[in-house]
Amino acid sequence: MYNIDTSLIKMLTDHYWIKRDKIVEKRTHNGRLFFDKYEKINEKLTNQIITQHLKGEITVAHSLINSRNKVENIVIDYNGRNTERFWHRAQLLLREEGFINFTAYESKTPGHLHVYIHKGHTTIQEAYQIGKMISAKLAQRLPREWKIFPDPDIPQEFNILALPYKLYNKERGASWSKHM
Predict the structure, then answer these.
(1) Helix (H) or strand (E) holding 129
(2) Which domains does the chain have, with CATH numbers?
(3) How far is CA 101 from CA 122, 130, 142, 177, in A?
(4) pTM metric for this prediction
(5) What tens digit of pLDDT does each residue of 91-143 get?
């Protein structure tokens, strides 16, 4: 779709979200008040919009949950200070748990990563469980500097992520497993 390898992300392209400078909507979820700065645009995500995003003219996000409550990717949004250490630990954990396709992309903020775990058609409940398990296992070895998406503690409309800016690292297939 654009100049970095996003083929396995399987983004929903029938709509997208644009970040606005003002609060678009207020929502209540599980007794908490959320302020939404992203506006949903019910148009196809095009290369022109993606180019504007990459140039920094607009901030575009994509949904993680489709209309049938299925998830293609579980994402670790790392916002810490030690990217190399986090990537190494996450990579080892994901391999150990049997995930063979995952990719890390750099976000707008230098040193922050979005690690997409390419799971395929997964129910939202299963995605929540897998996310909690991965987060708990990472927390055994690292300070908690990440958030897992999709997140059951926020409204479904907030389970969105800004489009990736640059490829950080990727893992494809099980070529490493023959050495174990």
Answers:
(1) helix 124-139
(2) 16-174 (3.90.920.20)
(3) 15, 15, 22, 13
(4) 0.89
(5) 999 999 999 889 999 988 888 999 999 988 899 999 999 999 999 999 999 99
